[in-house]
Amino acid sequence: DFCALEQYLKQVWFSSGFYHGIKAKVFGPEWFNSYNTAAPYGQNDGALWQGVGYNSSLTGGMRLEAFGFEGTFKPMVTFSQNKAFELLPSAYDSKYAYFWGYGGNVGIDLPQRFGDKSYFQFDWGDSEIRYTYHSFTVGFGTQSPWLGPAWLNPMLGSNNAGTYPKLDFGFRKTDFIVPKLGWNLGQFETRIWIAQLTESDYFDNNGKLDKNLMNGFNISYSPSFIPGLTIGATKVCLTRWGNNFLMYMNPFYSSNDIDGIGEDQKASIYVDWTFPKVGFEFYGEIGIDDYSYDFLVNPMHTLVYTVGFKKAFQKINSELIFEANNFEMSQDFQLQWEYMGYYAHAQILEGYTQRGQIIGAGTGYFGNSQYMSFKHYYKNGNITLFVHRYSNDMNYIYNQRFKADNKDSPSFKETYNKFYSKNRTTLAFGIDNSYIFNSNAILDMGICLNWIRNPYHELSIKDIFNYNFTCKLKYQF
User: Which residue of 170, 236, 251, 391 sits 20 to 30 Å from the alpha carbon of 23, by its own alpha carbon?
Assistant: First the structure.
């Protein structure tokens, strides 16, 4: 019988590496709703695109674990009313595509609007099949990896976009023991993955280049002799689907293939340091794009960064969160070519996206972002006040220098007058309240005002004020 099998497995050497039994867990359901009155707004919401009008997503599922295997089924269904709003002229085949590109030479699959109709969407969400033996793990599924310490805008992995199929393997948190001496130097965790990214329907008319290959590598280390500290590194490479799979599985592979099929490589290093006794956490991350250049001579080339902190105030049951992201182009591009930014590319024109949404930072992606929130916990929930300022397209403004010959020329003066202080900037003020009815049901409601300056850059004639209303109901078993 089953009990006899379980007792037998506990005595076998091989089977000591996994849990002997069966577990089941039910997720959700979780129902999210939002309404935007004048402009799209929202991030880190998976496959959902929160356009103008009513938006909704529903997710739920279950996980089954047995003898080292895990099966998770947690799909998402989304709806976007997708009401019309004024668009900037597209730079690509679709009239709904992003407004900025270099004549097909450098680009990104980032639609301003996803067509002209309301639409439903099915996404596999955090679904996967996984096997774990001791700390070694291998899995296939669609879970979106959140990479690095950032709270709002991770550089190289977030849930800002829909999920994508991937195969990964590596080690979960594992003690680093020195052989024979028995010293525990801390814990490390690592993962290598290979994934397929898909182009949206609102980019170009080339149906033969709709799939991209993404390979990723991440490692983190928490030394035992520095409590609370974690350091890590991430590397990703994009190329066309069907290219040399094994070559890109090598985490030390480094190139910038211009003459061949095309590559786009990115990397970051980060630190996260927590101080539990005083309730403080600091984190930072720096990243570079296409890093095949002289790092000693020009270490700031394509450099982007994130800094942030969290501070808990136990006496008043509150928490303060601050995060700043800078994704602007480095100053050396004033002497080089036009550069869209960290998430766009000349060889992989879709950029670092999945079905039209960036899989890294959801705001500030070609500019900068600053976010601060204050959360207060009370008996039956918490209430959060936040302010968020971000400019997504600073690089668009900076790149206009190519239209000017020199400071005394008419073209320079015309460019200055046309683009100075014309960067699209959003200032968001919001309040969110999460109320726990009982141990199972949670209701979350919020309202946010978006004040959008220069909504159409040099074409702007007035500001836009968008109201974002949200309501989320979650039932947990």
Answer: 170
Measured distance CA(153)–CA(421) in Å, rounded: 24
In SS3 terms, 392-414 reads as CCHHHHHHHHHHCCCCCCHHHHH
Take residue 322 and report the two structure tokens written for it. Answer: 């601050």
**Which helix (H) or strand (E) segment is 3 a member of?**
helix 2-11
Classify the phi-psi angles of 45: left when phi > 0, otherwise alpha if psi is within -120 to 50, otherwise beta.
alpha
What the block records as the tokens of 143 is 């879970």
Nearest alpha-carbon partner for 192 in 242, 245, 152: 245
Is 435 buried (19+), middle (13-18) or exposed (0-12) by CB count in 10 A?
middle
Torsion of CA 179, 181, 186, 190, to 10 degrees: -10
Residue 442: CB atoms within 10 A of its CB come to 18
Q: What is the pTM of this model?
A: 0.91
Q: Which of 124, 100, 108, 41 is nearest to 351 (CA)?
A: 108
**Length of the chain measured in residues:** 477
| 8: Cα separation from own chain's centroid | 45
Strand 381-391 and strand 441-453: the pairing is unpaired
Is the Cβ–Cβ distance between 215 and 249 less than 8 Å?
yes
> Which ranges of 170-276 would DSSP assign to H, the alpha helix?
245-248
**Alpha-carbon gap, residue 140 to 148, rounded angstroms:** 21
Cis previous bond, 75, omega within 30: no
**Hunting for tokens 């096997």 — which residue is that?**
131
Contact 53/36 with Cβ under 8 angstroms? yes
